[in-house]
Specification:
By secondary structure, the protein is α+β, with helices and mostly antiparallel strands. Strands 1-2-4-3 form a 4-stranded antiparallel sheet. The longest helix is centred in the middle third of the chain and has 25 residues. The chain is built from 9 helices and 4 strands, in the order ααβααβαααβαβα.
Length: 196
Amino acid sequence: MSLVLDPTAQDLLFREARTANAFTDEPVTEEQVQAIYDLVKYGPTSMNQSPLRITLVRSAEARERLVSLMAEGNQPKTAAAPLVAILSADNEFHEELPQLFPHFPGAKDIFGGSREGRERSAALNATLQAAYFIIGVRAAGLAAGPMTGFDLPSVQKEFLDDDHTPLMVVNIGKPAEDAWFPRSPRLEIDQVVTSV
C-alpha cells in the first residue's frame, strides 16, 4: 500500500466513516471541540484566509429555533444530536489577513473593495475548511451528520448576520447503532482522473 497513514486511521477517517443520522445521548465536551479545532485549523486555505466560522447550538431554546428551520426530514436528527454546529463563511475574512498573512501587508486591500469577490472566496475556502472539520470530528472518534437541507436565509437571520453566509448544519456525537444508511456507490478512478 502506498499510503503512510495507518490503515486503522484510514478506516476511521474515510472507509468506515459515513454521514451519521442517529446519535447516542453522550455529550460532546468542550475539550473535544477544542481538540477538533486545534487539529483542523492547520488545513490550507487560499492566502490563509480561514473564513470558516462555527456556531455551536447548545441551548434548548436555540436548538428549538434551529430545528424549526431544518427540512422536515432533518428535524428529528437535529433535535436529538448531542451537539449541532452551524458552519458559515465570514465574508469579512479580509479583516483578519494582517494577522493571518503578515508577510504580505497588502493582502487585506486585495479583498477590501469587492464584496462579491470576498463572498466567492469565503464560500470556497470555508467549504474546504468544513470538509476538514468533518474529518476532525471523525478523528475525535465522533460522527458527523452534515446537512444542507435548511432554510438558509432564516438560519442566517436567526443565528448569524449579513456578513456570515451559512454553508451547512452539522450534527455531532457518538453514533447510535442504527446511525448509518447503507453506503452509496462511488466513482472509480478512471471516471474521475484524467491525464493530459
